[in-house]
Amino acid sequence: MNCIGSGVSCLVAALAIGSVAGGTSSAAMPEQPLNVVFFLVDDLGWTDLGCYGSDFYRTPHIDQLAAEGTRFTQNYAACNACSPTRGALMTGMYPARTRLTDWIPGWSKQYGGFPLLPPKWTQHLEQHHTSLAEALRDTGYTTVHLGKWHLGGVGNLPEDHGFDINVGGSIRGLPKSYHFPYGGEAMKWGSHLPESQREGRYLTDRLADEAVAVIDRTKDQPFFLYFSFYAVHAPIQGRPDLVEQTKRRPRGERHKNPEYAAMVEAVDEAVGRVRAQLELSGVADRTLIVFTSDNGGVHRGTSNNAPLRGEKGQHWEGGTRVPAIVLWPGVTLPGAVCHEQVITMDYYPTILDIVGAPGNAEHNANIDGVSLVPILKDPATSLGREALYWHYPHYNPFVGVPYGAVRADNYKLIEYYEDGRLELYDLTDDLGEERNLVELRPEVTARLKQLLHDHRDHMEAQMPTPNSDFKVTQ
Ligand SMILES: [Ca+2]
Hints:
Elements: H1 7-21, E1 35-41, H2 60-68, E2 70-76, H3 82-91, H4 95-98, E3 116-117, H5 132-137, E4 142-147, E5 165-167, H6 203-218, E6 223-228, H7 240-247, H8 258-280, E7 287-293, H9 317-320, E8 324-327, E9 336-343, H10 347-355, H11 361-364, H12 373-377, E10 388-392, E11 403-408, E12 411-416, E13 422-426, H13 442-459, E14 465-466
Parallel strand pairs: 1-6, 1-7, 2-9, 4-5, 4-6
Antiparallel strand pairs: 2-8, 3-14, 7-8, 10-11, 11-12, 12-13
Helix pairs in contact: 1-8, 6-8, 7-8
The structure holds calcium ion.
Calcium ion binds next to loops.
């Protein structure tokens, strides 16, 4: 057994496991479903953890999770921005299919200055989907949403999409401040804490407090805890004592911002506190844990995704390749590293597969993700999937442009919707996407372009249209 908490928590967990494994009543006990804890960090970049090569941020608890579970080197977010990836997680479907293709509410005021106009896209998670929370609740799970939602407002909040409990989730995509009271009367706050413990806490710590309380309260029944951090999204505000610590350390070559480092490290503390509580509550060995991010990291003084090219909002790897770690007690191999290409939509069918939840057959028939169970059992095996796709018919303030992309084997093809221009990269020996192979590999280019177009047709993807008000100026 891996103990991450105090000696007391390890002892309590050992006693709990012993009572099941060695007790006389164990044979008569019904098999308990696995709990699910899903950590989603906002804007965490591919290199932002110790176990993914950060040269400045310290993340011992998340590194420990990777040491016990499977770490993915080619995990992708479904989109380069927040809401579409969150919609993909809740549905198992490509953003092109849900038509939730940009962050809510998007950047519509700026479109007058660009040659394309965005399609009329869906700015909330639609009710006809069977959300991951609904699929699990229908199987008897207590479903808990904690933190950032960003999939719609009144009528489309977490409680409207299958969550029994919602703490802190609203239409908002970011807090006004990480310091209490978070500047956010618009943020919706339920709470599991006594009144006296709700005030004054740094936001990430407050969410961890709530997580600990809710695990303690729901430990006797199967639960799904969707712990969706507001961190490490802007505003870049670390907890002061952590900032003091990070300021005293030498900066890295890649990562240099002590305020951002402190934000990452508060997330790491929260992961450690949740795992300690799982041990203390005696449920660690029957709790599936997933840890990932909704889009790539942010540059410009915040962080740095090198050796990947680009950042959040963009179409290169830095926009979508993000960390992912899965711990399935008794199944994932300690310290396993998996190089298979996986994507946000895969977690929906994976979780249903692992816990034995049937979900909704009609919804499942349109799921784009695949179960990762085979590669969680054997990280060297293949899912046999032909390709992964992205569709982003929008502009954004990160100098992001309307594009489609396809990843197949070692190749990635990008198509720019403004002019049909193509870029082809071999990510095996050009991870930084510097050498465009369109001219050198015409047959690969043609094959991937056909895949991409067929995919868009299959999705009935909404395309941008020419902007008649756009004037080319010299
Ligand atoms: Ca985000």
